[in-house]
User: Fold this.
Amino acid sequence: MDPLARNNVTVSGAVGAPPMVFAHGFGCDQVMWRFVAPAFEANHRVVLFDHVGAGGSDASAHDPARHGRLEGYAQDVVEVLEALDLGPAVFVGHSVSAMIGVLAAVERPELFSHLVLVGPSPRYTDAEGYRGGFSTEEIAELLDTMDANYLGWSAHIAPVIMGVPQRPELGQELASSFCRTDPALARRFARTTFLSDNRADLARVRTPSLVVQCREDAIAPLEVGQYVRDHLPQAEMVVLDATGHCPNLSAPDQLVAAVAGYLAPAGAVEA
Assistant:
């Protein structure tokens, strides 16, 4: 299957410029980057795509074995970059796509110039010496609730994830995005996401990385971002003066400024 069709890849921006790939989080699609990606089109070849099962992707390409692990989604990313053949890319991954980008960069480091990890979490559940933000019981309850009433779960959890109660329209947009996703595929992706543990993979990354974190985030607390920064060999961190887990929607100007500021001194093309 053509990976560009499979993942509903769209390409815009400056022809021949360094590529910049934006990867969305759980329950979302490439539309979630509409306030961020255009800011980089003047000086980058901007690539957007949908993970299998999301947005305009080919849902028939979902393979329970392959996509039962984040490594399967990372392989999809690698195949998209190989098919585009644009050169080493800046990879901007939100939420679970941050770890998908980490895994892809470990597997094929020559395909990546920089990683920008927005709200990353290598493990969502707490462990000895590690705070992921959720107990094992809380994650189990979350997954059970999704199984029992996915639409109800979406309406309840989306405003919590968005974290900006003063802008209820953003929580409603996220809930609508969740509800557009096939419930069966969403439940599988949720298990793949929330039961993953990629802490050991961080030390294997050789790509320069930026961790972008909101000062308050119910899904990936500040300590998680600090953990990711401290365990990546070449990492910096920016904390946005924003709340919630989706600064690409709630604080896009701050996110654009953080990414552009990181890439400029790093030798990449400034937005």
The CA atoms of residues 12 and 37 lie 10 Å apart.
